[in-house]
Specification:
The protein is an alpha+beta fold. The chain is built from 9 helices and 10 strands.
Length: 241
């Protein structure tokens, strides 16, 4: 884990020493594998663990009584899953893999032990949790105030910035395993509407999302169209560079 996506993400905020990174590596001792469609933990669970995502994508979601769901977070390699689930008495949400996932299981005592001797690591975790909150707030703004096309474009740009941080994307694009149904559940749209919006973005010359790949044709234009400001992601390495 010394040069894992998780370590690269934390190092974007704070300089971690070799001893700090060695402590981070102790969180990698319980590796788990999950298949798509099987929840890693679920709402109401009282003994949930958290996870550090090493490979694969996952989504956090809330299931409504009518069987529909709202995806509240898309998790990519380097992300920490389930912090609330180990701090709260019961988990308040579900996490499901989108692709096959490899993750390190983390329990509350693991975090306490890591933070006790490495306060800088605790600060880095706090930053990562705050960044996740900022992403959620930005999504609420999108759901309430952005048009469907702006919402989709903004989300694709956000994923690009997050993936670039951990070495999995750049200004030309990135691999994305999300279906239009997953995009719909994330962005509060129907799958038909998502399909129409993706066609609009393609015909406008901004970006394409085909065969599991997001490709940018006019990144500055898409930035302007979506009024995208990456400051809420709080890391160096602007997407345009």
């Amino acid at each position: 884990m010394l040069d894992s996506p998780f370590a690269r993400k934390l190092k974007a905020f704070v300089t971690l020493s070799d001893s700090d990174l060695n402590v981070v590596s102790t969180l990698d001792k319980r590796k788990r594998h999950f298949a798509p469609g099987r929840d890693m933990f679920h709402a109401g669970q009282t003994d949930a663990s958290a996870f550090i995502l090493a490979t694969g994508w996952a989504c956090g979601y809330i299931l409504l009584t009518d069987g529909t769901r709202q995806i509240t977070a898309i998790k990519v390699p380097g992300d920490f899953l389930g912090l609330r689930s180990i701090l709260f008495r019961t988990s308040d949400h579900n996490v499901e893999p989108i692709t096959p996932v490899e993750a390190s299981e983390v329990r509350i005592n693991d975090l306490f032990g890591a933070f006790a001797g490495t306060p800088r690591l605790a600060i880095a975790f706090l930053w990562a949790a705050s960044r996740d909150e900022a992403i959620l707030v930005e999504h609420l703004v999108g759901l309430g105030r952005r048009s469907a096309a702006q919402r989709v474009g903004h989300f694709l740009l956000e994923l690009a910035a997050r993936l670039k941080l951990v070495g999995l994307g750049d200004k030309t694009g990135y691999d994305c395993p999300m279906s239009q149904y997953l995009l719909a559940d994330t962005l509060g749209l129907s799958a038909v509407h998502v399909n129409r919006v993706l066609r609009e973005l393609r015909e406008a010359g901004y970006a394409t999302f085909q065969l599991g790949r997001v490709t940018f044709q006019d990144l500055p234009g898409l930035f302007a169209f979506c009024d995208f400001n990456a400051n809420y992601l709080d890391h160096d390495g602007p997407l345009l560079k």
